[in-house]
Design goal:
Length: 105
């Protein structure tokens, strides 16, 4: 499932209520963000047990600061409500697929 955050409180709800959450901090003007977003959108149907939450840093600066976003795209990965990793920058689809495969186990 891929969702775009509508309000600040939703993010914690998604993290708490879903086993596997990938948070994509992005901006609409950022070309690497758009590239990474396309990859995640392409793969989302293959991983129904992963919730992808897109967070627009221009709309949710408070969340960007809370999660230490200093460059975009930044992806934070949560399993069972705990942050287990993050990365900066766009990645090719095979790397994202590998990440999703590992997260799904």
């Amino acid at each position: 499932m891929l969702v775009e955050l509508k309000n600040t409180n939703e993010l914690q709800k998604y993290i708490d209520e879903n086993e596997n959450v990938v948070v994509d901090f992005f901006a609409t003007w950022c070309a690497p963000c758009r590239a990474l977003g396309s990859v995640m959108h392409e793969l989302e149907g293959d991983y129904p047990n992963i919730t992808i939450v897109k967070v627009d840093v221009d709309k949710f600066m408070d969340l960007a600061m809370k999660y230490g976003v200093s460059s975009i795209p930044q992806v934070n990965i949560f399993k069972g409500g705990k942050e287990i990793g993050s990365f900066l920058g766009s990645r090719p689809s095979d790397e994202i697929r590998d990440l999703f495969d590992r997260l799904s186990k």
